[in-house]
Amino acid sequence: GRVPVWPLWTILLLVRPLGSLGSPLCPREPFYFLIAIMKMLGNKNDGTLYTPDDLSVCPAETLGCFRLELSVIQFEEGPSLGIAVFRLQRLLDALGSRLWVTGQGPCPPCEGHPQRPVPLFLSKLLELLQGACAQHLPSA
Questions:
Q1: Within 10 A of 58 (CB to CB), how many other CB atoms are there?
Q2: Residue 12 or 82, more confident
Q3: 3-class SS at 117?
Q4: Within 42-117, where are the H helices?
Q5: Which domains does the chain have, with CATH numbers?
Q6: Which pLDDT tens digit goes with each residue over 41-86?
Q7: Which residues on adjacent β-strands are paired with residue 48?
Q8: How far apart are CA 1 and CA 118, in angstroms?
Q9: Exposure of 123 by Cβ count < 10 A (0-12 exposed, 13-18 middle, 19+ buried)?
Protein backbone atom coordinates (compact mmCIF):
# COMPACT_ATOMS: atom_id res chain seq x y z
CA GLY A 1 0.00 0.00 0.00
CA ARG A 2 1.88 3.00 -1.26
CA VAL A 3 0.12 6.32 -0.94
CA PRO A 4 0.05 8.16 -4.28
CA VAL A 5 2.18 11.30 -4.19
CA TRP A 6 0.46 13.18 -6.98
CA PRO A 7 -2.28 14.89 -4.92
CA LEU A 8 0.36 16.57 -2.79
CA TRP A 9 2.26 17.80 -5.85
CA THR A 10 -0.94 19.08 -7.39
CA ILE A 11 -1.71 21.06 -4.24
CA LEU A 12 1.83 22.45 -4.07
CA LEU A 13 1.70 23.50 -7.70
CA LEU A 14 -1.62 25.26 -7.16
CA VAL A 15 -0.59 26.96 -3.93
CA ARG A 16 2.79 28.19 -5.12
CA PRO A 17 1.62 30.71 -7.75
CA LEU A 18 -1.05 32.06 -5.40
CA GLY A 19 1.50 32.65 -2.67
CA SER A 20 3.55 34.94 -4.85
CA LEU A 21 0.56 37.21 -5.49
CA GLY A 22 0.09 38.28 -1.87
CA SER A 23 2.13 41.33 -1.00
CA PRO A 24 4.26 40.96 2.14
CA LEU A 25 2.26 43.80 3.70
CA CYS A 26 -0.97 41.96 3.18
CA PRO A 27 -0.59 38.23 3.81
CA ARG A 28 -3.39 35.87 2.86
CA GLU A 29 -3.46 33.98 6.17
CA PRO A 30 -5.81 36.34 8.03
CA PHE A 31 -8.34 35.89 5.24
CA TYR A 32 -8.07 32.10 5.37
CA PHE A 33 -8.70 32.00 9.13
CA LEU A 34 -11.44 34.64 9.02
CA ILE A 35 -13.32 32.82 6.26
CA ALA A 36 -12.85 29.49 8.07
CA ILE A 37 -14.34 31.01 11.24
CA MET A 38 -17.26 32.45 9.26
CA LYS A 39 -17.95 29.04 7.71
CA MET A 40 -17.68 27.18 11.02
CA LEU A 41 -19.97 29.61 12.81
CA GLY A 42 -22.51 30.04 10.05
CA ASN A 43 -25.45 31.82 11.65
CA LYS A 44 -25.55 29.77 14.82
CA ASN A 45 -24.06 32.43 17.10
CA ASP A 46 -26.84 34.88 17.88
CA GLY A 47 -24.78 37.21 20.07
CA THR A 48 -23.76 40.75 19.19
CA LEU A 49 -20.31 42.32 19.20
CA TYR A 50 -19.02 45.88 19.09
CA THR A 51 -18.28 46.42 15.42
CA PRO A 52 -16.12 49.31 14.19
CA ASP A 53 -17.12 50.74 10.81
CA ASP A 54 -13.94 52.42 9.78
CA LEU A 55 -10.23 51.65 9.80
CA SER A 56 -9.03 55.00 8.49
CA VAL A 57 -9.35 57.09 11.66
CA CYS A 58 -7.73 54.83 14.25
CA PRO A 59 -6.45 51.79 12.35
CA ALA A 60 -4.38 50.09 15.05
CA GLU A 61 -6.97 50.74 17.77
CA THR A 62 -9.82 49.57 15.55
CA LEU A 63 -7.96 46.36 14.76
CA GLY A 64 -7.44 45.98 18.52
CA CYS A 65 -11.21 46.22 19.06
CA PHE A 66 -11.84 43.47 16.52
CA ARG A 67 -9.17 41.40 18.24
CA LEU A 68 -10.81 41.89 21.65
CA GLU A 69 -14.27 41.06 20.38
CA LEU A 70 -12.95 37.89 18.72
CA SER A 71 -12.13 36.68 22.24
CA VAL A 72 -15.87 36.69 22.97
CA ILE A 73 -16.44 34.28 20.07
CA GLN A 74 -13.54 32.16 21.31
CA PHE A 75 -15.04 32.07 24.81
CA GLU A 76 -18.60 31.27 23.64
CA GLU A 77 -17.75 28.68 21.01
CA GLY A 78 -15.07 26.76 22.86
CA PRO A 79 -12.04 24.85 21.58
CA SER A 80 -13.49 23.87 18.19
CA LEU A 81 -13.22 27.46 17.00
CA GLY A 82 -10.73 28.63 19.60
CA ILE A 83 -7.61 27.67 17.68
CA ALA A 84 -8.71 29.42 14.49
CA VAL A 85 -9.71 32.52 16.46
CA PHE A 86 -6.40 32.53 18.34
CA ARG A 87 -4.43 32.28 15.09
CA LEU A 88 -6.49 35.09 13.56
CA GLN A 89 -5.84 37.28 16.62
CA ARG A 90 -2.08 36.71 16.33
CA LEU A 91 -2.23 37.63 12.63
CA LEU A 92 -4.23 40.77 13.39
CA ASP A 93 -1.59 41.75 15.96
CA ALA A 94 1.12 41.36 13.36
CA LEU A 95 -0.88 43.27 10.78
CA GLY A 96 -1.71 46.05 13.20
CA SER A 97 1.94 46.59 14.04
CA ARG A 98 3.12 46.48 10.41
CA LEU A 99 0.37 47.94 8.28
CA TRP A 100 -0.90 50.88 10.21
CA VAL A 101 0.32 53.73 12.30
CA THR A 102 -1.57 54.65 15.43
CA GLY A 103 -4.55 56.85 14.63
CA GLN A 104 -4.60 60.60 14.56
CA GLY A 105 -6.97 62.26 16.97
CA PRO A 106 -9.34 60.80 19.55
CA CYS A 107 -10.15 57.14 19.12
CA PRO A 108 -13.49 55.89 20.43
CA PRO A 109 -13.41 53.04 22.95
CA CYS A 110 -14.44 49.63 21.61
CA GLU A 111 -17.74 49.99 23.47
CA GLY A 112 -18.37 53.18 21.49
CA HIS A 113 -18.93 51.19 18.29
CA PRO A 114 -22.38 49.88 17.35
CA GLN A 115 -23.30 46.33 18.39
CA ARG A 116 -23.95 44.00 15.48
CA PRO A 117 -24.72 40.28 15.11
CA VAL A 118 -21.66 38.04 14.97
CA PRO A 119 -21.93 37.22 11.21
CA LEU A 120 -22.08 40.96 10.43
CA PHE A 121 -19.12 41.60 12.74
CA LEU A 122 -17.05 39.01 10.87
CA SER A 123 -18.03 40.25 7.43
CA LYS A 124 -17.21 43.82 8.48
CA LEU A 125 -13.74 42.71 9.59
CA LEU A 126 -13.29 40.99 6.23
CA GLU A 127 -14.42 44.10 4.36
CA LEU A 128 -12.08 46.39 6.33
CA LEU A 129 -9.10 44.05 5.85
CA GLN A 130 -9.78 43.87 2.12
CA GLY A 131 -10.02 47.66 1.93
CA ALA A 132 -6.80 48.15 3.88
CA CYS A 133 -5.01 45.65 1.68
CA ALA A 134 -6.27 47.32 -1.48
CA GLN A 135 -4.79 50.61 -0.26
CA HIS A 136 -1.42 49.05 0.45
CA LEU A 137 -1.00 47.13 -2.77
CA PRO A 138 1.68 48.62 -4.98
CA SER A 139 0.04 50.23 -7.99
CA ALA A 140 1.11 48.63 -11.25
A1: 20
A2: 82
A3: strand
A4: 59-77, 79-99
A5: 28-101+108-135 (1.20.1250.70)
A6: 876 767 899 999 887 777 778 888 999 999 998 888 888 788 889 9
A7: 117
A8: 46
A9: middle
